[in-house]
Amino acid sequence: DPIPLLGTLSNLLLFKNKFGAEAYRKLDVIGIDEAQFFGDLYDFCCEAADLDGKTVVVAGLDCDYLRRSFGSMLSVVPLADTVTRLTAQCEECGKCALFTLRKTGEMQTELIGGCDVYMPVCRGHYTNERGATKATVEVLIVIQNELVFETAAATV
């Protein structure tokens, strides 16, 4: 029987304690969604699979909007029996979308949003759009620096 979600855990290694040792022992499969956000993902997967004999299914983003590895996702690949990389279709041309394009100027790695903030794109559209996005961000930084400079000059 499927077991209901436990809610949000900030640390996967707390799972066994929160769930209960006896209930945990009865589990065959553990699913982890949004795995890129768990700093202890590697340690948990090693413990659950290697020591406890669980099947661990991990889902999450392997890279951020800048195509840098995201969280611990890629660190668990060597532990995996199989790896399946799922992709969307490019919103511009319908080709395989390997990347996520952020449509806003926010720069932080973690930004919650849907299709208003992100869109799946192929390599060609990622590199074309990133060039435009990078230029826009550089202009915003220049404008921001000039405003800071002007504000500082005005207060002197």
UniProtKB/TrEMBL annotation:
Q: Where is the signal peptide?
A: none
Q: In which pathway does it act?
A: Pyrimidine metabolism; Purine metabolism
The answer, when asked if ATP-binding is one of the entry's keywords, is: yes
Q: What class of enzyme is it?
A: transferase
Task: Mention one GO biological process in which this protein takes part, according to its record.
Answer: DNA biosynthetic process
Keywords (alphabetical) are:
ATP-binding, DNA synthesis, Kinase, Metal-binding, Nucleotide-binding, Transferase, Zinc
Task: Look up the EC number in the record and give it.
Answer: 2.7.1.21
Q: Which Gene Ontology molecular function entries are recorded, alphabetically? A: ATP binding; identical protein binding; metal ion binding; thymidine kinase activity
Catalyzes what?
A: thymidine + ATP = dTMP + ADP + H(+)
Keyword Kinase set for record? yes
Segments forming a coiled coil = none
**Which PANTHER family does the record match to this protein?**
THYMIDINE KINASE, THYMIDINE KINASE A
Family, per entry: Belongs to the thymidine kinase family.
Q: Per its record, how is this protein called by name?
A: Thymidine kinase
| Organism, as annotated | Phtheirospermum japonicum
